[in-house]
Write a structure and sequence with these properties.
Elements: E1 2-5, E2 8-15, H1 22-25, E3 35-39, E4 41-42, H2 43-46, E5 50-51, H3 66-69, E6 89-90, E7 92-93, E8 97-106, E9 114-122, E10 125-130, E11 133-138, E12 145-150, E13 156-165, E14 188-198, E15 201-211, E16 216-225, E17 234-243, E18 259-266, E19 272-278, E20 293-301, H4 304-310, E21 314-315, E22 317-321, E23 326-329, E24 332-335, E25 338-340, E26 342-347, H5 361-373, E27 378-381, H6 388-397, E28 400-407, H7 420-436, E29 442-448, H8 456-470, E30 475-477, E31 491-493, H9 508-511, H10 521-525, E32 531-536, E33 555-556, H11 558-569, H12 576-599, E34 606-609, H13 638-643, E35 648-653, E36 658-660, E37 664-673, E38 679-689, E39 695-706, E40 710-720, E41 728-736, E42 742-750, E43 763-764, H14 767-775, E44 779-783, E45 814-819, H15 839-843, E46 849-850, E47 862-866, E48 874-882, E49 885-890, H16 900-913, H17 926-930, H18 935-938
Helix pairs in contact: 5-6
């Protein structure tokens, strides 16, 4: 095959009203065209289009309309200064037809050959003309657009005209294949742009199915022959081992490049073939633990009477494959007979530096490397399909992929009602299977995300039946999220997670006493097929404002700039990194409980995090432990994450996390084994350490055998707490003997102290009483229940779920607490600088005091990290000089609490107010306190 790379400068003409015709442009002098642009590329990258305005018609739902109406956003709606908070923002915007043209010089050596134009990744509907002759129209958002130029192309200069129309397609405006929430709606062509000359007998279709059980490969396809030639009679096949992960890195290993098998098969009268080749008993399989790949070459073959004189008129075709079987067995998913637990994340097509999914393999190797480093083995591509480079990288690194056919038929459209999306789904599905179906990493497929429509269940049931009939090399589900269709091989369902959409503060993580025993066995047992939990997590962190400088590509974080302005206006900009770190520690804690709950569940298929990576769209959902550039944010390492998220994980089942002297810390130890092999005679060493790291107790459990694909009880540990000098956080550390598998759990142990009377007399719950005492120059501990606060800040233990803008203000509205553990007010209360599980007991009884009207220099002792959209200064505990008196204010109702955590906070605060350390310096008039209380609370 010969190629002409068409990368370079193309002439460009915009057609915003869609009025231009190919006949009008065919004979034009290209030098008279108004502009040029480099391809591969996009108009977004080149800054071509209209400036962003408040009236720009974006592609994507906007549920929070406050940006369009509220005064606080007015300056961001001004012409020339527009900044939107919904997603990453390009400098210019264009959503209409654009014409690209250039002259192509066809060499003399191509005469009589078949010529094809390939556009790897256009974005929109594409129509191509060659010397004024229309070659066809394509609208795939997932696969290369290929156009037959013909077998009669003469050498010389030819005019190539390409029309790309990225007007919104009716496939669901939030589909990540087109939405401004993710990659953006760009116009252009990226990836390979080339003319290819092939011989006139070629393999048009080539499909392979590497079968692990039989260590064979089934190959089928079709050979095409140019008009006027004798048809090929068969195909010759050669299989070589091309790739294996070895000690020196990918691509190394014994046997690479050797021929495994050869064969020949005849064609039927339609040019079709179907054959199975044995690779031999020594052939290696492909999965997350062994990434052996094979190369198949298929060469059209002629009758022996013609082969000697016509061999130069056949075009070989190659593809890669791996030996892997994927199937379900009851509630289990098996790959090569090994039970799988899919530890997944979503790829939502977020690439700020390119504004489109990258088409080079190295970029995807980096993404897949970050996925693997965090202990994950699976990526779901949410309502889009990546370029082939992603499949190649996943093949190399043993990552399982769930692909979707570019649709999210909800909000702006429905499926099954005879709309455009119905036929598009069928075309897109077949195109994806034909283009990428040979890759072993492509193990799962869904039609798209969260469908809607009166007939969506029936329609997608028919889609499922059809796609299974044409390709059974993977397992299928009708869609991600819903419906729960009887014919799906597996379900992707939102129910098995620790917080549901709309549960707010009633969710398990916010309403149930902390433990590590919950799982989803009842839900899973009610289904007959495997269940993978849909978009779990969604736990937000505060924006990393230092990230702004990373956006050197076409998409800019104007949303972050708005958030930065809000913080600055409220006098909190200097705390931005502290907010990030504190909320990040809470986020990691939430994800840990989310993932361990899944791992504790028998017969569970796995989970899909909504994002290991941040999602900058849909109101800005900062749910990732890595940023949009797949880089760490600094509060949890990949190694720490992998401790609770990996093939083999130790799990402690603690009925509670808070203890007092006289209790026993008891836990069952389980081992979740989704590794390569069964584990024999496992011994687990456990150590209970105090706050200084000293050993309080230790022991061992086991030995047990743990079968691959099972979570097995290793044993029970128990340690009596005889006495406790000081209340503190302890750690329960687990490790498999002579192995690197370890895990650690925090518990809190409180001394059985009598309640300190020091400072007790200063407590009041009556604001009027507090004011009178302060006027007399007394020390006052004012304790306010959340119901007394004027502003209803949705304070929960967890961080924000997704975000408040996209969820119509779902609670919680906050991101945990921030404090200085060394502050003398907290001397008796064991804590880190951020929320940890013991704070659950306090937060559930607490509100947040809005301190925006108080002096800026007043920093709370315990601060609540607010939603970045409002960026308020929120206090849970703060102190102030009020007239002649001194005030300590707490918005947690500690008086009625009967748990050791709240009692300990009470003792610590009472001791502080009675001590010489209690000497607040920032003066606050009591009127400022009163103005933040409900009227009935002021009396």
């Amino acid at each position: 095959m010969s190629k002409i790379n068409l990368a370079g400068v193309w002439y460009l003409r915009l057609d915003p009203k869609g009025q231009l015709k190919a006949d009008d442009l065919r004979e034009t002098n290209l030098s008279e065209w108004p502009m040029t642009m480099r391809l591969p590329g996009s108009m977004t990258v080149e800054g071509i289009g209209d400036p962003i305005e408040a009236s720009t018609r974006w592609v994507g739902s906007i549920f929070d309309r406050s940006w369009f109406t509220e005064a606080r956003y007015s300056k961001y709606r001004e012409a020339g200064r527009v900044k939107v908070p919904f997603w990453l923002q390009p400098e210019t915007y264009y959503a209409a037809a654009a014409w690209y043209a250039r002259d192509v010089e066809v060499p003399s050596g191509w005469e009589g050959m078949r010529v094809v134009l390939g556009l790897e990744r256009p974005h929109g509907k594409v129509t191509v003309w060659w010397n004024g002759r229309e070659l066809g129209e394509r609208d795939s958002l997932a696969t290369p657009h290929v156009f037959e130029v013909g077998c009669d192309v003469r050498p010389g200069t030819h005019r190539l005209l390409v029309r790309v129309d990225n007007s919104p397609m009716d496939i669901g405006e939030n589909s990540h294949s087109i939405s401004d929430h993710t990659q953006g709606n760009w116009n252009g062509v990226v990836g390979r742009i080339e003319l290819r000359a092939t011989r006139r007998r070629w393999v048009e279709k080539l499909m392979v199915d590497g079968q692990a059980e039989t260590k064979s490969v089934r190959v089928w396809g079709q050979v095409q022959t140019a008009e006027g030639l004798n048809r090929a009679s068969g195909v010759r096949l050669n299989v070589t081992e091309m790739y294996r992960a070895g000690a020196k890195g990918f691509g190394y290993g014994d046997g690479v490049g050797r021929v495994i098998t050869t064969g020949r098969v005849s064609l039927d009268d339609q040019g079709r073939f179907d054959v199975e080749l044995s690779l031999g008993e020594s052939a290696r399989l492909w999965d997350e633990f062994d990434q052996t790949l094979y190369r198949l070459e298929v060469v059209p073959d002629l009758p022996s009477s013609e082969s000697s004189k016509c061999d130069d008129d056949v075009e070989p075709r190659t593809t890669t494959f791996g030996l892997r079987d994927v199937r379900t067995q009851g509630r289990r998913i098996l790959i090569n007979g090994r039970i799988q637990f899919f530890r997944g994340t979503l790829d939502c097509c977020i690439f700020p530096l390119t504004g489109h999914p990258p088409t080079d393999v190295d970029s995807w190797r980096r993404v897949m490397g970050v996925v693997r480093a965090h202990g994950l083995n699976h990526v779901r591509f949410h309502s889009y399909c990546p370029p082939e480079a992603a499949f190649i990288a996943a093949d190399e690194m043993g990552i399982y992929l769930q692909i979707e056919a570019s649709t999210w038929p909800n909000q702006s459209t429905t499926i099954g009602d005879g709309k455009f999306v119905d036929s598009f789904l069928m075309r897109e599905t077949e195109a994806i299977l034909n283009a990428y179906g040979n890759h072993p990493s492509f193990v799962m497929m869904a039609s798209g995300n969260e469908p809607a429509g009166e007939r969506h269940v029936e329609f997608l049931g028919e889609w499922l039946k059809w796609v299974k009939s044409i390709d059974r090399r993977r397992i299928y589900t009708v869609a991600s999220g819903w419906p729960e269709h009887v014919d799906s091989d597996y379900h992707v369902l939102p129910a098995p997670r620790i917080q549901q959409w709309g549960e707010e503060l009633k969710s398990r993580i916010n309403s149930t006493e902390p433990s590590t025993v919950s799982d989803y066995r009842v839900f899973v047992a009610a289904r007959d097929v495997p269940v993978i939990s849909h978009e779990i997590g969604q736990w937000c962190v505060f924006p990393n404002l230092e990230e702004i400088g990373k956006y050197k590509g076409p998409l800019k974080p104007r949303n972050f700039e708005i958030f930065r302005d809000t913080l600055d206006r409220n006098g909190l900009l200097h705390q931005a990194n502290d907010f990030l770190m504190a909320s990040g520690k809470l986020q990691a804690l939430c994800y840990r409980e989310e993932i361990e709950s899944a791992l504790r569940t028998p017969e569970f298929g796995g989970f899909q995090l909504l994002g290991l990576q941040d999602f900058p769209g849909q109101g800005t959902a900062l749910v990732g432990v890595v940023d949009p550039f797949w880089e760490s944010k600094g509060y949890v390492t990949a190694e720490e994450f992998r401790q609770f998220c990996g093939p083999v994980v130790l799990l402690a089942r603690l009925p509670r996390r808070v203890f007092t002297a006289g209790d026993s810390i008891t836990a069952d130890v389980d081992l979740s084994n989704y590794g390569r092999d069964d584990l024999r005679s496992v011994m687990v060493d456990w150590i209970l350490r105090d706050v200084d790291g000293d050993v309080v107790a230790q022991g061992e459990v086991g030995p047990v055998d743990v079968a691959q694909g099972e979570s097995t009880r290793v044993g029970r540990i128990s340690s009596a707490i005889d006495s406790v000098k000081n209340s503190a956080r302890w750690s329960l550390d687990l490790q498999i003997r002579r192995a690197a598998i370890a895990n650690s759990y925090s518990v809190w142990v409180y001394a059985n102290e009598g309640e300190s009377m020091a400072g007790r007399s200063t407590i009041t719950t009556d604001p009027a009483d507090a004011e009178r005492r302060l006027e007399r120059g007394e020390r006052v501990f004012l304790m306010l229940s959340p119901e007394r606060l004027a502003m209803d800040v949705g304070l929960g233990f967890s961080s924000i779920f997704w975000n408040t803008a996209w969820t119509s203000g779902q609670k919680p509205h906050t991101l945990g607490v921030l404090c200085d553990p060394k502050h003398p007010a907290l001397a008796g209360f064991p804590t880190s600088f951020h929320s940890d599980w013991q704070w659950w007991y306090l937060v559930r009884r607490a509100g947040a005091f809005v301190m925006d009207d108080l002096p800026r220099e007043l920093t709370p002792i315990v601060q609540v990290v607010d939603d970045w959209v409002t960026g308020r200064k929120l206090g849970l505990v703060f102190e102030a000089k009020v007239g002649a008196g001194r005030l300590l204010l707490c918005t947690a109702d500690l008086l009625e609490a009967n748990d050791p955590v709240c009692r300990q906070m009470m003792r610590s605060l009472c001791s502080y107010i009675a001590s010489d350390d209690f000497y607040p310096r920032v003066e606050v008039p009591f009127d400022s306190i009163r103005s933040n209380l409900k009227r009935h609370a002021q009396a």
